[in-house]
Amino acid sequence: MRRIAHHGVVVVGAGLAGLTAALAAAPRKVLLLTEAPLGAGCSSAWAQGGMAAALSEGDSADDHARDTIAAGAGLVDPAMARVLTSEGPDAVRALAALGAPFDRTPDGGFAQGLEAAHGRPRIARVGGDQAGAAIMAAVIDAVREAGHIEILGGYRLRGLLQDANGRVRGVVAQRHGELAKITAAATVLATGGLGGLYQVTTTPAELRGEGLGLAALAGAVIADPEFVQFHPTAIDIGRDPAPLATEALRGEGAVLVDAKGRRFMARYHPDAELAPRDVVARAIHAEREAGRGAFLDARQAIGANFPHEFPGVFAACMAGGIDPRVQPIPVAPACHYHMGGVATDADGRTSRAGLFAAGECAATGVHGANRLASNSLLEAAVFGARTGRAAAAEADPGTRVEPSQVVPVLPDTALAALRHAMSRDAGVVRDAQGLARLIGEIAALEALHGPAPALVAARLVAVCALQRTESRGAHFRSDAGATLSPARTFVRVSDLPALQFLPTLKFLKAAA
Ligand code: SIN
Q1: What is the predicted pLDDT for the residue at 399?
Q2: Which atom of ligand 1 is nearest to the CA of 377?
Q3: What's the CA-to-centroid distance between 19 and ligand 1, angstroms?
Q4: How many Cα atoms are found within 13 Å in the side-chain-facing hemisphere of 1?
């Protein structure tokens, strides 16, 4: 095994959180590990909406925090929301200073768009739906120019190194079949979410909760894993991953209709198309289940302006044979964002010494049970920077580590079975019977393939979803009514009940 002793910070993942952490760690040396080329394989570059921040006259960090807390259905940590929203405007300005070409008002301010559950227009956008790609391009340029960052491309995370005290001391990564043991003073996970555990996702499919699973196996506390957000309007043209029809379209007046052209959202929520994301996702799910179909009709609101106002959505629709200027867009909910993750403080510190987390794989507490639209790039920028600075301050404890544990990789056929089961049983609508069945299937896969991080991440979602016997935010239980008193989930994987599901496992074996 190749050995690399790096005395600074190793950052795993090159989405906005990872790149921001790497930049903020200066002047400390950073080793940036990424499997995909920069700009690929991360959700940040696919983000369409933009960055929510109180940048306009009359708006305030308090108002933004209030909307964030309301969307989170009782589980947002108010102090963390306040960090996010008060540091948000400067984070957007910093990205603009790097060259991110945010849309501007005639007087040079930031143009602000509206998205669901925001009390006012608050989204800083780029070219309609190009925010993620444009912001990432600017940040990637800065990273390439930064003298303190060394980029190691083509490396896949395969394990975390720990010392005898459990402190995380670096990673095991793999490139072209060769394993490398990389020790470092601090390790930052910025490995993204877990959309690839679901059959239909709006994120790169290679994001399978692997950082989350590895952190859990290393003994880190995981928070709120049951809260998975489903975007209501993935474009339903049979693609995996599914392209997104940004919520900004509804902000501009696009409406949801069934196959007969009838609007249905008013039956589900007084705010209709601008209801919270989880409400809209469930409404679309219900319409589709009832056989009525669901379509986003932007003919009136956008019409002929589609190609220049929403070029990304327009191109995706046209590639799928839909002309959104003259046809409603078929839509379906798809896995979009994981509110849960590795529990961190406001500087990205996890419960494991030496281990930090930022971005979607972290749970800072700002999203609660349901993330507010366009708060994710903002979280990546604000908490990515804080995490990079904190990780850079870690002293190097040397290179003595315990023998490394390389975790198994899930074979493709098992992954396909997992994705099917997760969508069926841990999707938009859940119940105890389905979740128990899912846990049994995950246990069967673990028995065959070992504790692959994707399976560990899936087990965290499923077990905590079963244990949360209420509906709250994005976690909807058809077999549970009113919400209980609000309480976040904090769990170690060693606390998860696994063996009690052996009866289900036996049933599955008997059926096979
Ligand atoms: C969207 O553009 O609808 C997605 C924005 C987000 O997920 O925050």
Answers
A1: 67
A2: 8
A3: 20
A4: 17
Mean pLDDT taken over the chain? 94
Q: Which ligand 1 atom sits nearest the alpha carbon of residue 337?
A: 7
Indicate the residue among 334, 367, 383 that finishes a domain.
Answer: 334
Domain count, the chain: 2
Cα distance between residue 342 and residue 17, in whole Å:
14
CA of 201 to the centre of ligand 1 (A): 13
Q: Which amino acid is at 485?
A: S
CATH number of domain containing 323? 3.90.700.10
Question: What is the domain extent for residue 467?
Answer: 404-511
Structure letter (DSSP) for residue 337 = E
pLDDT tens by residue, 376-420: 999 999 999 999 999 999 988 776 777 777 889 999 999 999 999
Residue 483 is predicted with a pLDDT of 78
The rounded distance, in Å, linking the Cα atoms of 22 and 34 is: 12
- Atom of ligand 1 minimally distant from the CA of 374: 8
Q: What are phi and psi of 222, to 5 degrees?
A: -110, 140
Count Cβ atoms below 10 Å from residue 218 Cβ, excluding itself. 24
What is the reported pLDDT for 498?
55
Q: Which residues line ligand 1 (CB under 6 A)?
A: 48-49, 246-248, 373-374, 376
Q: Which one has a higher pLDDT value, 395 or 234?
A: 234
Query: Exposure string (b/e) for 314-350, b if CB count within 10 Å is 16 or more?
Result: bebbeebebebbeebbbbbbbbbbbbbbbbbbbbbbb
Res 170: pLDDT:
96
Q: For 29-60, write each residue's pLDDT tens digit.
A: 999 999 999 999 999 999 998 999 999 999 99
Q: What is the pTM of this model?
A: 0.94
Same structural domain, 494 and 411 = yes
Q: Which of 122, 158, 250, 277 is catalytic?
A: 277
Is 277 labeled as catalytic in the residue annotation?
yes
Q: How far is the CA of 364 from the centre of ligand 1 (A)?
A: 19
Give the pLDDT score at 405: 72
